[in-house]
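Database export, one record per block. Field names are fixed; values are copied verbatim from the stored entry.
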Amino acid sequence: MTEASSTEAPALTPQFCFNERLLRDFLSLSRSTIDDSITQNLNALITPAREGFDPSSTAVRQIDSKTRKAIDPRNCQGFKDNVLFPSWQTRSDVLTYCAGVATSPDPDDPDLILRETESARDRERVVNERLDPYSARFFPREARTESLANLVRNQRTVEDIIRTRTWGMVTERCGGSTSWEDALNNWRHSNQR
C-alpha cells in the first residue's frame, strides 16, 4: 500500500480557502481515500498468502467479526503512522489555516462595497409593517469570511464524526484503547509536528 496523494497539502492561500467548492472537494477526496474506505485499507494489511490457501475456509460463510484474521501489529502501526495520521494532520492543517483566514480582515472582498451600499440603503428605508408585512425583510449579504467560518466549523464537526468512526474500526481490527485524539497527539509529538 502506498501513501495516498490525499495526504499532500494543497497550496494554502486565502484564495484556496475562499474557493469553498475547492476546499470541500479536497476534504471530501481525502476522506474518501482514507476514512470512507477504512475497511478495505485495513483488509489490505492482511497478507493471507503467507499461510497458503485453506479450501475449508470457503465451506462456511464467515460473517462474525471475531473470525476475522488478526492484522500484524507492525502493519497496523505502519498504516497509522504513514497513511492515517498524515492524512488527518493535513486536513487539520488546512482547516486551521482556513479558520485563520476566516477570522482575518478581508481587504480583497469583492462584495464589500455592495454590502455597504445595501446596508446604507437599509438604514434609510421607512418600514410600515401594517401596510406591507414583508417590507421589513432584508437579508444582508454574508461576508465571505463569515461564510468560510461557517464552512470550517461544519467541516470540523464532520472531521470529528469521521475520525471517531474510523478510529473505532482501527481499534477493533488493530487493538488499542486510546482515543483518536490521544493517538494523533502522540504521533504529532513523535514526529515533532
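Remark 1: The helical segments are 14-18, 20-34, 38-43, 73-103, 112-124, 144-174, 180-190.
Remark 2: Residues 34 and 84 are 7 Å apart (CA to CA).
End of record.
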